[in-house]
Amino acid sequence: MSKERVSRRQFLNYTLTGVGGFMAAGMLMPMVRFAVDPVLKGEAAGDFIATKQKVSELTDEPVRVDFTFKQKDAWYESEVTNTAWVYKDGDKIVALSPICKHLGCTVGWNTNKEHPNQFFCPCHYGRYEKDGTNIPGTPPLAPLDEYPYKEKGGFLYLGKAEPRKEA
Ligand code: FES
């Protein structure tokens, strides 16, 4: 028989440490999972959202396309409606964000009679060309963001608006 006997004190220490550790792990694990879960899942980046816009009905005149989707912000899920100004440029579709690059107001197409066929921001008179390029001398310093797009079943799908890449 082994001479190394465990004293009563040691036995109690081991037992209490073991039980305490087990309980602490039991309490901490759900908290850690709760905190990390949304991060592990990631966001559905790169997903394209269906719109009700038929691609065949698009012309070279920008039209307003509203589209709704569910957005999950960590634990909070909400329904969000976004807007795009969409037109056809030859074979290509151009889908522009309506968010002004100055201070974030909403731009409209052809709403300023003095400057027809431009995007106009009523907040500080920002103006953009039809392709989204900001007009020098007006407050915005960058072109409108552009949505990547896809066509599926004849309908327009839009991705996440991104700053325009300079050619
Ligand atoms: S927010 Fe559009 S011009 Fe200022």
UniProtKB/TrEMBL annotation:
Residue spans crossing the bilayer: 12-32
Subcellular location: Membrane
Annotated InterPro entries: Rieske_2Fe-2S, Rieske_2Fe-2S_sf, Rieske_Fe-S_prot, TAT_signal, TM_PetC
UniProt KW Iron keyword: yes
Topological relation to the membrane, as annotated: Single-pass membrane protein
GO MF term set: 2 iron, 2 sulfur cluster binding; metal ion binding; monooxygenase activity; oxidoreductase activity, acting on paired donors, with incorporation or reduction of molecular oxygen
Source organism, top-level taxon: Bacteria
Keyword Coiled coil applies: no
Keyword list, A-Z: 2Fe-2S, Disulfide bond, Electron transport, Iron, Iron-sulfur, Membrane, Metal-binding, Oxidoreductase, Transmembrane, Transmembrane helix, Transport
Chief site of localization: membrane
Rieske domain segment(s): 84-158
SUPFAM superfamilies: ISP domain
Function of the protein: Component of the menaquinol:cytochrome c reductase complex. The Rieske protein is a high potential 2Fe-2S protein.
Matches recorded under PANTHER family: CYTOCHROME B-C1 COMPLEX SUBUNIT RIESKE, MITOCHONDRIAL (PTHR10134)
Complex and partners: The main subunits of the menaquinol:cytochrome c complex are a Rieske-type iron-sulfur protein (QcrA), a cytochrome b (QcrB) and a cytochrome c (QcrC).
Protein name per the record: Menaquinol:cytochrome c reductase iron-sulfur subunit
